[in-house]
Amino acid sequence: YLRLALEASDDAARRPQLLFDLGMAEGGLDAAAAGLHMRQAYDGLTDPFLRAMAARVLARMLLFTSTADEAVAVVRQAADELPADLVDYRKAYEAFELYAPAFGAEVPGASERLAIVRAEGGGEIGVGARMLRAVAAWDWAMTDGSAERCAEMALEALADGKLVAADPGFGAIIAGGVLALADREEAVEVFAAAMVEAERLGSLRTVCLVNIWKGFAELQRGELAAASATLGDAAEQIRTLETNGVGMAYIAAFLARVRMGQGDLAGAHEVLASAPDDRPPSDGDALVRRSTIELLLAERRWPEALSAIEAYRRRLRGERNPTWAPWRSLEAQALDGLGQRQPAMALLEAEIELARGWGAPGALAHALRLLATMRPASSLALLEEAVQVTEGSTAQLEHARSLVAIGSAMHRAGRGAEGRDRLQRGLDVADRCGARALAEQARAGLLATGARPRRGPLTGPAALTPSERRVADLAAEGRRNREIAQALYVSTKTVEVHLTSVYRKLGIATRAELGAALAV
Questions:
Q1: Which of 80, 136, 472, 489 could serve as a FRET partner for 348 with CA atoms 20 to 30 Å apart?
Q2: Which of 474, 501, 500, 477 lies closest to 485, judged by CA?
Q3: Which segments of the chain have a pLDDT < 50?
Q4: For residue 385, what pLDDT is reported?
């Protein structure tokens, strides 16, 4: 309707407002069109508040259609033109500018400026200031902050729900990302609340962005089936939302790691092939490179992995966080595969030190477990620590890996009963995570000890993936496929595929049988 109004109107004075309204509507669906119309609106608007809003939307659209440097140029110009009383908008612009290096922008002194933000503390602050503190928490997590203190800053930014309500697709997900990196339970609540706001807004873009980072949080927690469903939705949603592939790089990188966790190396190859080839030197590019290296290591292609690590390190922006940029443990695995164990162990010892400084259990257990494979004399002690630090944490996949590793080591050391117990616990957690290859490894280990392990559910409600369950529940309520697709922001074809799988797993043939089958 707004497009029709724009075509029909011959009133030049009304045109900027129509362009603004149209750009706002398009912002959740079509980045290229929204960017074009918002730029035209910004040039014609005279109201300072509307110009500020237009610049904010335009800059975000440019991230997905042009370059991050162009987007930064827009917010810098807008900040220079802001009236003195729009202080919080200036902080929102600054938050955008200082996070833009993640998308490849050149922003000299960004970390130093964010260190000043951290030093200033919290207090009664507006949404723009909360955005700025979320970005400061992320930067701190990437450099020399601890998981506890970075999470505290992220939670301060999220306090009272104001940031989630006002900015679910940027500030809220950055703060939620900090919590996910820190292995904090609160990350789940943040992304759930952000999705509620995204759906309330009716913005496909915001839904997609929340799904990308919700999928990352689920990956960090080891919830592989959930992460696969969430990131699969994001991959479908992003098709109309960008032209430069910047968001798809994140999706492909995270989803490839999910596939590897599920033991599906062919699927990981397929997902990585969907990442854009022409990527700017950004976080998305670094994430794709990391996942590619992990796949090479899984396939024991040591020389190729070592070569790829050099390029990966050059693309990093000085990140020290071992959860986000674990280049040391990646290089250690490649070196060990090539018979260079001493330098490999030195790299792992350095990563363990960084992981202890960061303080999140998942990264520490990962490095301890890898070092245990190279230092047999102390492997049980290293693996015992890995099990203990992840016990009761959100890093459940790493906990399962540690349990299976120590169970196998105990069996080799002649401690059969203890080994069986650890292997069975590892199998249970791996099954819950959906880590099929790890579960099979645990089963093989249990068989070697003389145990007879059970297999996970292949049919029935427990066998449904999170996406299948969501679709099944809505269908059982009587909703049609099109209504389900609209509610979940996916295509009707995706709904049909999920329902076909649901019927097979539940052993039913019609929608009328869903309610009773799901209640079993």
A1: 136
A2: 474
A3: none
A4: 98
Phi, psi of 109 (to 5 degrees): 75, 15
The number of residues in the chain equals 520
pLDDT by residue (tens digit) across 144-183?
999 999 999 999 999 999 999 999 999 999 999 999 999 9
pLDDT at 122: 64
Are 100 and 109 contacting, i.e. CB atoms less than 8 angstroms apart? no
**Number of helices (H), then strands (E), in the chain:** 29, 0
From the centroid of its chain, how far is CA 204?
Answer: 17
* Residues ≥6 apart with Cβ < 8 Å to 36: none
Under DSSP, is residue 465 helix (H, G, I), strand (E, B) or coil? coil
In angstroms, the Cα distances linking 517 to 30, 108, 453, 455, 475 are 40, 59, 27, 21, 12
Give the residue carrying structure tokens 């019609």. Answer: 510
d(CA 93, CA 107): 13
CA-to-CA distance for 194 and 168, rounded, in angstroms?
Answer: 5
Residue carrying the six token digits 């397929």: 270
The two three-digit tokens of residue 387, written as one number: 């099990």
Rounded Cα gap, residues 35 and 67, in angstroms: 12
Buried b (16+ CB within 10 A) or exposed e, 466-488: bbbbbbbebbbeebebeebbeeb
**According to the model, what pLDDT value does residue 151 have?**
98
End-to-end CA distance of the chain: 48
Per DSSP, the residues of 36-85 read: HHHHHHHHH---HHHHHHHHHHHHHHHHHHS-HHHHHHHHHHHHHH--TT
Strand, coil or helix: 510: coil
Residue 332 to residues 335, 350, 359, 397, 465, Cα–Cα distance (Å): 5, 11, 21, 21, 35
Torsion angle, alpha carbons of 203, 208, 213, 218, to 10: 120
Secondary structure (3-state) at 430: helix
Q: How far apart are CA 181 and CA 179, in angstroms?
A: 5
What does 91-104 look like in DSSP terms, one character per residue? HHHHHHHHHGGGGT
Amino acid at 486: Q
Contact 275/245 with Cβ under 8 angstroms? yes
- SS3 letters across 288-299: HHHHHHHHHHHC
Long-range own/partner contacts, residues 225-230 (CB < 8 A, 24 or more apart): 225/434, 225/465, 225/466, 226/465, 226/466, 227/254, 227/255, 227/258, 228/255, 228/258, 228/259, 228/262, 228/434, 228/465, 229/465, 229/466, 229/467, 229/468, 230/466, 230/467
Nearest 10 degrees: CA dihedral of 286, 150, 93, 284?
10
The angle at the Cα of 219, spanning 216 to 225, to the nearest 5 degrees, equals 115
Q: CA-CA distance, 520 to 518, in Å (whole number)?
A: 6
**What is the pLDDT at residue 369?**
98
Determine the residue type at 387.
V
| Under 8 Å between Cβ of 174 and 133 | no
